[in-house]
Amino acid sequence: MNEHRLGFPRRLDRSLRGAGVVMAGLIAVSAYAAKSEGCEGGGFTVLGRSGAQDVNVPAAQVGATFVVQGRYVRFEVDAATLGIRNYAFLPTANPLDMTNGVVTPVFASKSPDHRGLRLTSDLALELGEENIELQREGPGVAMKIQAKDCAAGGVFQMEVERSDQTATEITHVLAGDGISPLSAFYFDNRNFRNREGDVVPYKDTTVVVAARINFGNGISRRFIGRDSPQVATRLVDPSCSNVIQKRPNSTPPSVVVQHCGGVSRWAVASGGRMGLVTGEDAIEVAPPATICVSKCQAQNRVRGQSVKLGFPFPVAEADKLKPRSPTSP
Q: I need a labelling partner for 137 at 20 to 30 A (CA). Which of 57, 150, 167, 200 fits?
């Protein structure tokens, strides 16, 4: 490959690391926070390959889309963008299973907008015991997906880097029509809202409870997740303005949350990432991971004990965010 092309620091070019550029190869907390018992027997099969290996799959063998199949999760990948579709948890007997015995759709899509750029290189594929890493690049853009095949925890992250160093908009669309009980939906977590401002212990320090937007469904009282950004900012949707009541005796008594019930949009800095966190990790009160710009090590990740506030089930209608999708002006 041209040694001056954009890419991530493994096989896809290692040269672009300008001043102030966030290290695209950072390992964020959520991608590796899954508990070992939640991953027992996990492992992915993709493009006819499984088991530990580290290969480059020729572009001609990749196809337009391909399936990543695990014991606990399954999703489809768009080869030209490394966006994903139809991400779902599969029912298992694992004690951390969140599915209530049925295939549980999570995301209809997680789509990066590369603004006309396409990924055209060979596909760098690394498979581990329960991990997968996918990397691909094209003129001006590179993408990486890291995932774990686990029943719960930090199980997915998507990273993007552009040669022009501008942000990439990534749109998350939750699975379902908003009517079926299996439809996933975003909600303002009442357990966090009613504790907003409280100081709780965390390891050898304390943390102030902030409001929390999670997603769940109407089937499983154990299914819970959240979007986990690092060096990324959520784009508000004024057409999805929700009046949420704050804890009793608050002044003012309510707050307007501009977030749709089935869609979230994020501006992700070049080298930033969007993660998917599920299970207990999605309802813990802990400091955010520090913003890491180079040579990210373990101290840049959230570690230690934390308070877990849970979530109400079923979720009150007043706390479900609406409408499901943005409406045109």
A: 150
